UniProtKB/TrEMBL annotation:
It comes from Bacteroides uniformis str. 3978 T3 ii. One of its GO terms (cellular component) is cytoplasm. Residues 8-153 form the DUF4922 domain. This is GDP-D-glucose phosphorylase 1. Transmembrane segments: none annotated. Pfam families: DUF4922, GDPGP1_C. GO terms for molecular function: GDP-D-glucose phosphorylase activity; guanyl-nucleotide exchange factor activity; hydrolase activity; nucleotide binding. Specific and highly efficient GDP-D-glucose phosphorylase regulating the levels of GDP-D-glucose in cells. Its EC number is 2.7.7.78. The keyword Transferase applies.
Amino acid sequence: MNQTIHHLLTGQLASWETARNNYAALSGVRVKELNVNGILYKVQFNPARIVSSGAKVDAKSILERKCFLCPANLPPVQKGIPFGGHYNILVNPFPIFPRHLTVPELAHTPQRIATRFTDMLELAEALTDYTIFYNGPKCGASAPDHAHFQAGNKGFMPIEKDWRGQTAGKIADYRKAALWYLDDAPRATLVIESTSKEDAADLFDIIYRSLDVKPEEDEPMMNVLVLYEADRWVVFVFPREKHRPACYTAEGEANLLSSPASVDLGGVFITPVEKDFLKITAEDVAQILSEVCLSATDFHKVRQRIREKI
């Protein structure tokens, strides 16, 4: 499957000007590194991502636009690879990663993870060169009305290789799986490690049921990363408190266009505006994370609930 994806990517870059230009622009993307309470974060200045970071995801705006993930609305030049009978693997024309995919459901149905987590595990197992990610409908998804995953080439996000050195403890062993939590505040991170797809899915379900669902919402707020290597799945679950930090709508100097999603929580903060890239500090990143992630107290409660359910 990795080879098939490679052919899709090279073919799309040859035939699709928008994608070609945006991937070429990645070579000029600027990156800086910040140390946030001992955890490495990268900050990427990526102007093309204004499309996503600045996306209007309120109900009215969504109703007024055509869904850009529905097959009928894709540009004629955009080609895909079927997956799992009801997904389409597409090249993302507004990349963060050198290889960036979007994997929408064929049908127009809301962004929800509960019934799709096993699909995510299967996608990770098929695309071993990629980390798969899910942004909840109010956790960075720019199409909250259309179910989809994304995928980016492995090794891009610091958490992928750094997490083992950040473990605070093991919450539980569960058959062929283990559930860890990280010492990475103000981020709140749970990590499932499993050689069994079923056990990983069961553990995820326990996590899901241990998280609060906010009023007016259909699922707990979260971002999820999944990768498959050395015959095991590694799943990162980032429970969320809030969609966007206060700085997103602040006036004047306090304004910073940061709408954190899976990649940001994985350790690569995306700044589509140059002034934000230049001024953002480790303190800013810590403040943003402290607003959008669970507090230490709430994260402790979640871990207690998980232990009780296991």
